[in-house]
Amino acid sequence: MNKSSRTVMTFSGGIHPLGDGKSLSNKMAVVPAPLLDKYFVLLSENAGKPPQPVVQKGDKVRKYQLLAAADGFVSANLHSPTSGEVIDIRKVPGPMGLPAVAIEIAADGEDAGEPPFEPITDWQNADPEMLKKRVAEAGLVGMGGASFPTHVKLSPPPEKKVDTLILNGAECEPYLTADHRLMLELPEKVVRGAAILAKILQVKRAGIGVEINKSDAIDALNKFGSRYNVEIVPLKVRYPQGSEKQLINAITGRKVRSGGLPMDAGCVVQNVATAAALSDAVTEGIPLIERIVTVTGEVVVEPGNFRAKIGTPAIELVKLAGGVTEEPGKLIFGGPMMGFAQKSFEVPIAKNTSGILLLPTKVSLNYATTGCIRCGRCVQGCPMKLMPCLLSTAIEADRFDLAAQNHVMDCMECGSCAYVCPDHRPLVQNIRRAKAELRKQAAKGN
Amino acid sequence: MENTTVLIAAVVLMCLLGAALGAVIGIFVRIFKVKSDLLADFALELLPGANCGGCGYAGCADFAKALAAGKANPSGCPVSSAEQIAAISSALGVDAGQMERKCAVVLCRCDIGEVRHMNYNGVQDCAAAHLVGGGPQECHYGCLGLGTCARKCPFGAIEIIGMVAVVHRELCVGCGKCVAACPRGVIKLVPADAEYHVYCNSPKKGAVKRQFCKAGCIGCRKCERSAPGKFVINGFLSQVNYDAGEYPDEKVAAAFTCPVGGLLDVESRIAAARAKAEEVKNK
Amino acid sequence: MDSEKNKSGMLLPTGEKLVLSSSPHLSTGASLRKIMGGVLLALLPAVAAAVCFFGFRALLVIIYTTASCVIAEALWCYFAGKPVLKTISDCSAAVTGLLLALCLPVSVPWYVPPIGAILAIWLGKQVYGGLGNNPFNPALVARVGLLIALPAAMTAWTPSRGMLQYDYPLQNTFFSGENLRKIGSEPADAITCATPLGVAKTSGKVLERGDAGKMHFAEVEYPDLLLRYFLGDRAGCLGETSVLALLLGFVILVALNLINWRVPVIFVGTVALITGAMHAIFPGVTPNLAFHILNGGLLLGAVFMATDMVTSPITGWGCVVFAAGCGIITSVIRIWGNYPEGVSFAILFMNALVPLIDRWCGKRPFGYVPERHK
Predict the structure, then answer these.
(1) Which chain C residues touch A360 with a CB distance below 8 Å?
(2) Which of A114, C136, C241, C291 can pair with C232 through a Cys bridge, CB separation 3.0 to 4.6 Å?
(3) Burial state string for A196-229 with b = 16 or more CB within 10 A and e = fewer than 16
């Protein structure tokens, strides 16, 4: 934001995914998903503590009704996506591979409920604390992927001076178009959300970073930018432009120190979908119960973007997208670079599921290494300026100490290294293992 | 003549150089001499030098120091045989001490149970695979079979047969490296004289287990009723009561029929794994 | 049928074929074989030039040497219990073989390529654990090994085709087509001559005792010759002579993103700078920079050997240091050394320093805070 917004900002390193698959679904308008018979609302959706259920088996619930209340500060409320009955609270296949507790709701077909909160129409003059309370009430979490409770991010400790709010509309992950369609179709909600966030944080500067391959979204946002005093920053198409640290670097030129949080650089980063949800929560008083999900992939018959209720099983969304042309080799929640491979189509979507990606076997990366040839592509591609090939070699030899010395903990697992590796080494998986091991060792040491 | 002079000069020079460098080394050895404990050095000589860490110390040298300082007993070394321990204790003039011999056992029969699993593509290491959505198997308590324990074992006591690890008791000294390496906690250190084990590690309900594994313990308590005190039931999982001092033997095993055939002696377990691997291979 | 069709005829996935793996789930589609194939493609112009200037035997030598290397790799893998076909199919042995062939003179005796193949593949690569673990460029290990062990066979240079027709304007030179033809008309097994670098070295040495002056290197620097050097119409190793073909290869490699273009540019640039400066200050010591750039194995080494992924640094600045070091050592050997050519030695020497260079030039992580500021 230091320079004119015409300049296309970027960070150094990273990769440029060729054929990013966005054209499969970026022209498809968001379609509301029809009401289903059953929803599985996962309790352990947010990072931090899972919320505690406040309903019991057999309870009748209304749409928007509180299902589970935040347990502690780093936790988020959970609301009913529709009206109906709580059939069970049980373990279902979860998005992280392990069974996860979910509240199973049988819809009564009426989808009836009242917004539980008072709309705050005059939010410009509202008390920031009240707005922040609304964020917590509405169960907002980071909808870009990390699923971190939003109100926690909006409560920086007083010693951290936050002066900039950045909305992440980069959507640098290949294939995903949910944020793109959101910005294009509901630009005012996004910009208003940004303004509300700026109000809560009491910062003067608020900007939305968008990659220039979404020029139509930039145009749409620009129509509202000046009204809400929010700047739209075009960004170069480069992965991982949407990573918090890289985004802050691209837009403000600041660098978050190693091991630090965005607020150390005076910034708070939120996803555009979170901002739009916040706008709804404030001006209409409705909690977060649905989100836009991209259902895409080469084997999907009609890839598209759907407004789906939280708790919708993946298979139902695949049905909406017309089914598949062949049996997929991979089901991914999120994008292909950082998303999680799923074990089953029964897994329900959560607040952070931005995409459901079905890749055929021939497209998905097959890890089959014969040994590093030291081409250095991973080193050039690493946005955190690490040396993934050397880290991985050290980790393969169980030299976690060496990996730690070489800053393995700074890795954010963006996957640029493994994407460019010509030997298809499982670099990210090795690094994850080292990080888990080092965390375990650190926990033991304390 | 000139050549001879050069030759002599070269030889003399070499000798002088050697002497000078030797002197330098000698001086440095004196200066930087590491004070050694004779007793500890002597103990180290007698120890096997496997550096397995089974004694609880960082390695044989560390253990030797502890021995010399009287902080440990020779029987703390799991690698040494009884004779070797006797030799060490008599040489050091200390009490041999008592130490229960341990042995590792992999409490899983996922190969026999044909545990449902999906395709996995990535690092061939259990710890790494476990981090990807909890591993490819539907059972999150069983053996992953990627051989991290086998690679960590300093004694080559673990073999991967088909897709499951088994421990060869005659090679295992009970150092516990595999136990630390296993992300699933399916390897247990048990008393070395326990012959029979219940080969399952999942505390889940029998009905849940049956969905994806034919060989998992269903918690029917037949074993416990047949031989009270010899088994402990933990949730829906029966395990041999290793604290009892007396472990199930052939008689106990013959007295009742385990519905899933999970109570086995070590040798039959290895034989069964081999037979299953052969069967899978031929398929 | 894996997927079930529901009533409306829609094909729904069952999840039977789902694969579990860590992210990322996409790749660029690059593979070792494609990389090696790209290098082979980039070497084709040099192969064509070699056949063009040295005749059919050049092609035989190239095929023979490449086959020797592939066979040497297969033999090692067979006896070392490695998968034979899988290892060969990555084409790395073929690349090494082709590079080695391009470092040989056309008149090379039959027993040299197999020895070179064993040196390259066994001693240069497999003893370290195979592709990716070798500290030195295998082809250069073989070339230097052969140069030291079989100097006569490795330096028996044959005049290129054009040289025989070319009548040199200056008298009594090594390159005079007239002289070469004269020798050719007498009964002899083969005609040999010197490479321009060799001539420069010897004439430099001879003239040291004579009067200093610009004429020293006139016979190799003659402007008319520069075009011939550029095209490759001179004596030398099979692949090193044609600068044009090597530049074409360079363009292919850069277009396919297989090399860091800075390495060849800085390598050649450093040589140009040092030899140019030396020539400007002491014209009697070394020929001019155009001569140095166009002659010897500089281009072959800079484009194909110094850029070898395995044996060059992985850091950006490391590549710069590495290339500059290669250039400096090459110049030093060419100007003051005993050998007329120093590219191979320079690259091998710098190969040995790669781990150190990488350590020194290692990047600072994003947002790195030095220990003392924490």
Answers:
(1) none
(2) C241
(3) bbbbbbebebbbbbbbebbeebbebbbebbeebe
Most confident of the following: B41-55, B208-222, B254-268, C28-42: C28-42
Residues of chain B with CATH 3.30.70.20: 102-282
User: Domain of A174: which CATH number?
Assistant: 3.40.50.11540
Do A136 and A256 lie in one domain? The reply is yes
- Could you report the per-residue pLDDT of A365-379, keeping only the tens digit for each? 889 888 899 999 999
Q: Closest Cα of chain C to B278: distance in Å?
A: 23
Domain boundaries B38-92, corresponding CATH code = 1.10.15.40
Report the domain count for chain A: 2
Sheet of A52-53: strand order equals A52-53, A66-69, A78-79
β-partners of residue A210 are: A169, A234
A207 within a domain of the structure (yes/no): yes
Chain C residues inside the 8 Å CB shell of A387: 314-315, 362-363
Which value does ipTM take for this structure?
0.88
pLDDT tens digits, A204-231: 899 999 999 999 999 999 999 999 999 9
Average pLDDT over residues A67-83: 91
In a domain, A273, yes or no: yes
Chain A nearest-CA distance from C40, in A, is 17
Residues A131, A136, A138, A141, CA torsion sign: positive
* 3-state SS, one letter per residue, for A3-49: CCCCCCECCCCCECCCCCCHHHCCCCCEEECCCCCEEEEECCCCCCC
Contacts of C26 in chain A (CB under 8 A): 17, 174, 336-337, 359, 363-365, 419
**Min distance A344 CA to chain C CA atoms (Å):** 6
Query: In which domain, by residue range, is A393 found?
Result: 377-445
Largest interatomic CA distance in chain C: 100
Q: What is the predicted pLDDT for the residue at C295?
A: 87
The percentage of chain C sitting over the pLDDT mark of 70, rounded to a whole number, equals: 84
Give B200-245 pLDDT, tens digit per residue: 999 888 888 888 898 899 888 888 888 888 898 888 899 888 888 7
For residue C356, the model assigns a pLDDT of 94
pLDDT at A304: 95
Interchain proximity C20–B133, CB inside 8 Å: yes
Are B121 and C20 in contact (CB < 8 Å)?
yes
* A341, A367, A432 member nearest B131 (Cβ): A432
Start and end residues for every CATH 1.10.15.40 domain found in chain B: 38-92
Of B100, C23, C230, give the one whose Cα is nearest residue A411. Answer: C23
Within an 8 Å CB–CB cutoff, is residue A344 touching chain C?
Answer: yes
Rounded CA-CA distance B49/B53 in Å is 10
C177/A304: higher pLDDT: A304
Does C28 lie at the interface with A, CB-CB under 8 angstroms? yes
Last residue of a domain, one of A283, A312, A333: A283
Per-residue pLDDT for C209 more than 50?
no
A430 contact residues in B (CB cutoff 8 A): 123, 128
Contact with chain B for residue C20, Cβ under 8 A? yes
Q: Which of these CATH numbers, 3.30.70.20, 3.30.420.10, 3.60.20.10, 3.40.50.150, describes B102-282?
A: 3.30.70.20
